[in-house]
Amino acid sequence: MTANGIIASGNNDLFLSNGKSGDRVSSVFTSDVFDPSKSGLNYVSSSVYQNFNYLEVPFMVRYKVIDKTLGMNVMGGISYNQLLNNSAYAVADGNRYFIGNTEGMYPITLSSSLGIGMEYNLSKKLSLNLEPTFRYYFTPMSGQGGSSLHPFTFGVFSGFSYKF
């Protein structure tokens, strides 16, 4: 069990143990049925990584507060996020080993964004942008074990914009 849910493995050649009491990761074989030390398998010390890929469709509103050579705007909105990939893996000796996926992840989440944008006009059509943005997820990422994980991020986005 992780903060996001239980990692379930469908790999029959894999036995996972967290070395502590309680099962954080489930596998096909359990310690009461299978003892890896008696079968000649070597323990590999590694961390389990979870990878979640989402397609985000944002609905943003931007309001220009200052409209000069150095402009400033305020922006905010919500985003619809669709889960595209859910995988768990371990890395040992530079190799990446697929373990399985995290059960109970919600396929759809909603997030909000709030930011302040600064825009420097290089010409009438070209400008340089810098946008510090805070994003918060309204809906939890999973429903496993009563998890109420609501991630948030802070990012600084930059780039050029061209006005047609």
Summarize the structure.
With 164 residues, this protein is mostly beta strands. Helices cover 0% and strands 56% of the residues.
- The portion of residues forming beta strands comes to over 45%
Query: Which term fits the overall shape?
Result: elongated
Largest sheet: 8 strands, mixed
Number of strands: 8
Give the count of helical stretches. 0
H-E string:
EEEEEEEE
Distance between the termini: 51 Å
Structural class: mainly beta
Mean pLDDT over the residues: 80
User: In terms of per-residue confidence, which ranges show pLDDT below 50 for 5 or more consecutive residues?
Assistant: 21-26
Structure description:
The protein is an all-beta fold and 164 residues long. It has one domain. Helix content is 0%, strand content 56%. It is built from no helices and eight strands. The chain has strands at residues 7-9, 25-26, 48-66, 70-92, 95-102, 108-121, 126-137, 152-162. Strands 1, 2, 3, 4, 5, 6, 7 and 8 form an eight-stranded mixed beta sheet that branches. A hairpin with a 4-residue loop joins strand 6 and strand 7 (126-137).
What's the topology here?
Blueprint: E1 7-9, E2 25-26, E3 48-66, E4 70-92, E5 95-102, E6 108-121, E7 126-137, E8 152-162
Main attributes of the structure:
164 residues; mainly beta; elongated
